[in-house]
Amino acid sequence: MGTDGASTRSGSVNSMHRMIKLCHLDDLPEQNARGFDPSREGQDTVFVVRQGNHIYAYKDLCPHYGDTALPWRKDEYLDPWGGTIVCAAHGAHFEIATGLCIDGPCMGESLPKVPVQIMDNGDILVAIDEPHGGGESP
Amino acid sequence: MNIIGPDTLIFGVDDIDSCTQYLLDYGLESVGNGRFEALDGTGVEVKAKDDTSLPAPLETGSTLRKTIYGVADQATLDAIAEELKKDREVKQLDDGSIEAVDDMGFALGFQVTVRKTLNLPAETINAPGADNQRGLNVIGVEKEASPKPRSLSHVVYFVPDFAKAEAFYAERLGFITTDRFHGVGPFMRPAGTQDHHTVFFIQTPPHMQGIEHFTFHMGGPTEVVHAGTNMVNKGYQSFWGPGRHLLGSNWFWYFKSPFGCNVEYDADMDLHNDDWTARAIAPGADNSQAFLLQFREKWAPMGPPPAADQ
Ligand code: FES
Ligand SMILES: [Fe+2]
């Protein structure tokens, strides 16, 4: 079963991060993407793309303006054919496997990767930055 | 030249169904053949990317394929054709419009405008010291409302050379620069409208050339926020807003879209005539908005800590 880089183990993630469960592999249709809000920020901050048994995870942050989430509607991260990741704001296209922008305004820049791990039971875990206190005002 | 403003934007897209649903949810009326109209008859047309009736795409693959300007009368149309024929091909189309390509490579159309004259009230307010605008016992807001876009307002383009763009629109088409961001680009209005801008150019690297956003005028700020809230409730994702711009004073709310550009609602833009002197200010977050009332989907103070699984 492939993971993003296949190198991340919960033990090797440094102490600023912790692994958090997003969903189960069966929750993601093959060739599909889904956004999550693991640190409860009020909007999706991480998304995962499933291609067969491979899972890729990225921060939901377009490198073009630097502070924009990608989809035009919840979970609409892919082009109509499921071949690339798209930022709807100005139509940037990114490779699913690498996050590299191959077409559009931020060509050559990449989506920030998020370490992801698929457990034996199919749970999908990502490393998130330690949350900054549940009560903090934005 | 008596150019009034954009009548129609034509897009060539990947996902016609999503774009169609988006425009209906945005509030435009479907009139058939992939055309969607605001109350005054201006609108957007959606075609498949490979539709052979479309002008050739830009190399960058921008989904905007043509901007059609409405002009006052046939004499204006003839004058534009005459002017542009000096150094480029001007096509005469069957519907009476003309087509040419501007100095950046954007396909332009010109036609006697399709705009219908609207007779609708603007949003009214009451304030101490002023005569009440709305009248007694007239309610200002309802929980449910579906305000309709009134008129195609403006288009914003990413261009590799804003000075070249500004020169073309000023010298060849008679547009007037109302304000500018230093080093970024001008806001321009054609001579036939008093709107602060119907076009704004943003300087970018050449591989970004295309459309940044388009927008329709609403009846007032309440309508901008109401229509935007309806979009949020239908699952669309805000890009920026609601807020109020500094240059132009227009209220705004931008949404991402399946068109690969942002789509805005705007209201209450400044009007200008030739007495106005263009301002030039530094670009940046501080000068792009007077204020921002950021929408937040589901934030609650002191919310629960992140759960181990959801
Ligand atoms: S912000 Fe993503 S393409 Fe511009
Ligand atoms: Fe705008």
UniProtKB/TrEMBL annotation, chain B:
Occurrences of domain VOC (ranges): 151-268
Any GO MF annotation of the entry: lactoylglutathione lyase activity
Family matches, as InterPro entries: Glyas_Bleomycin-R_OHBP_Dase, Glyas_Fos-R_dOase_dom, Glyoxalase_1_CS, VOC_core
Keywords per UniProt: Metal-binding
Keyword ATP-binding among UniProt keywords: no
Leader sequence residues: none
One Pfam family cited in the UniProt record for this chain: Glyoxalase
Segments traversing the membrane: none
Protein name: Glyoxalase
Keyword Metal-binding: yes
